[in-house]
């Protein structure tokens, strides 16, 4: 593994390149750097979400996810290294099943709204999707293990479910349920039920 950072402003990136963990210098516009940046942004959004009041089970899970995302970013930073364990994907699968088990079935599409924490989870979900797309794009040009892609796919699903959980937790008093899209189909269905 490369050296730990001891100096932040090195000025070595002034020429438009940046260093990877294996010592290579690449353009800051490279697909690998784009994927790393998206994963870093996702982790930062989770940090903002963690600054909110959250149920303990959600908080504990997101702290683990932040560490796993750091491993994923490290793996992207060091081509050929495998830092994100396959078990991390299984951990997300289990969390997805556990949190989804108590939620009611969706009647329609939901809006990324409700409580502040739920809205922040939705923002993180969209960044997870973008991160996944960036990793897919990178894997079309360079060798990348499937585990990072699988992890990001599962994480975006989990963040959707967590947004629903957080609306029901209603820790800021502004939620309580999913915010449904007002579609014509749902309006007809509600009219027929009356």
Automatic annotation (TrEMBL):
UniProt EC number: 2.5.1.-
Keywords: ATP-binding, Cobalamin biosynthesis, Nucleotide-binding, Transferase
UniProt GO MF annotations: ATP binding; corrinoid adenosyltransferase activity
Alphabetical list of InterPro entries matching this protein: CblAdoTrfase-like, CblAdoTrfase-like_sf, PduO-typ
Gene Ontology biological process terms, A to Z: cobalamin biosynthetic process
Record field: catalytic activity: 2 cob(II)alamin + AH2 + 2 ATP = 2 adenosylcob(III)alamin + 2 triphosphate + A + 2 H(+)
UniProt-annotated stretches for the region Disordered: 1-23
Assembly, per entry: Homotrimer.
Protein family (similarity comment): Belongs to the Cob(I)alamin adenosyltransferase family.
PANTHER family assigned to the protein according to its UniProt record, in alphabetical order: CORRINOID ADENOSYLTRANSFERASE, CORRINOID ADENOSYLTRANSFERASE MMAB
Name of the protein described by the UniProt record: Cobalamin adenosyltransferase
């Amino acid at each position: 593994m490369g050296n730990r950072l001891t100096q932040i402003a090195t000025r070595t990136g002034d020429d438009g390149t940046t260093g990877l963990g294996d010592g290579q210098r690449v353009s800051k516009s490279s697909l690998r750097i784009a994927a790393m940046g998206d994963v870093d942004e996702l982790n930062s959004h989770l940090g903002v979400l963690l600054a909110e009041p959250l149920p303990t089970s959600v908080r504990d899970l997101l702290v683990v996810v932040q560490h796993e995302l750091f491993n994923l970013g490290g793996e992207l930073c060091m081509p050929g290294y495998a830092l994100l364990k396959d078990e991390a994907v299984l951990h997300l699968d289990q969390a997805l099943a556990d949190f989804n088990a108590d939620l009611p079935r969706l009647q329609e599409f939901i809006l990324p709204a409700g409580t502040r924490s739920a809205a922040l989870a939705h923002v993180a979900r969209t960044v997870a999707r973008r991160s996944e797309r960036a990793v897919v794009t990178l894997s079309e040009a360079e060798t990348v293990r499937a585990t990072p892609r699988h992890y990001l796919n599962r994480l975006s699903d989990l963040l959707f479910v967590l947004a629903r959980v957080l609306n029901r937790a209603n820790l800021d008093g502004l939620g309580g349920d999913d915010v449904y899209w007002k579609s014509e189909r749902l309006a007809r269905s509600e009219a027929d039920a009356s």
